[in-house]
Amino acid sequence: MRKEIYQELYSYDSKHSLVMNSITGDVLMCKTSRYFDPAVYRFLEEHPDPHFPKIIDHWEEGGELTVIEEFIQGHTFDSIIHDKEMPDDRKIDYLIEICKALSFLHSAPIPIIYRDIKPSNIIVSSTGDIKIVDFDAAKTFKKGSVKDTVLLGTEGFAAPEQYGFGQSDQRTDIYTMGIMIRDMFAPSHRIQRVVEQATMLDPDDRYQSMEILIKKLEMSKGTVGQLTPVMLFPIPGFRSRKVPRMLLSTALYILGILLSLGISADGGGAGTTLSARLAYLSALFCIIDCCSDWTGFYYRFPFIRSDNLFVRIMAKTVLSVVILLAWCIVFGGINVLVLKD
Known about the structure:
3 domains, 41% helix, Phosphorylase Kinase, domain 1, three-stranded antiparallel sheet, 14% strand, Transferase(Phosphotransferase), domain 1, alpha+beta
């Protein structure tokens, strides 16, 4: 059998090992997986691209896929993300190369969706080239399918549709790219506006192709380090410019304002009622900001950007409670002052 020509040199773990072709003497990487799409590897083997390790051989046996591919020497993309001395524009160049690699997959006759872009799956070779590895989560796009049959991806990077809310497509990779871009730059940097669009929950609201994301990244050059202006308009509910959402949001805003204005303070004076109304209005907008990151206020606090979903939820919950308590203290103080008068 052909697998017998590959002699193991070193085992990294149960799924990754360094092997040598006993005929040619080439040192290669051997990977095994139980979750795979054979069409992905056939395409990569027949259409080699410099952004991916060259597929030398692959075969299926016992429900498991074995892949022999080019061995890439280098370091993971974390080294680029955390390199404080590297110019921002240089980092953007790397991001554009990753986008081009994903665009190559998306342009396949049957589009390939990578679904697991993250720093550990990207190698910067010793020559400085980008290599995307590990195609366990990759799949071909199945036209007409309602959702993914196998839910794969990495928590903190995976798009909502990878949790069973729809079928993954090109926009899924745009979402995961947005998460990685977010982690590369400070929350206040202008490029976070690109992140905001790329990571919208509804795929229809994201950039619709990797080419558009590439253009946005190119336009960001020279401006990354500048502070992101606080954009209070359009307000949440109107950003998608979809009529049903805008009508629903308008109704909810009006209802919230009317409820706040209708509040009265039993036994209190006009000042007490006014402060209560202001407190409830403030709480309303605080809740809107918590759900939509309208002002970008929440995004600047620790743990809000954690890769762990539970940590993110807890951090936002704790911060929201603190803010609401602060409002109660402030407006409670106003009431005391009013009553004294």
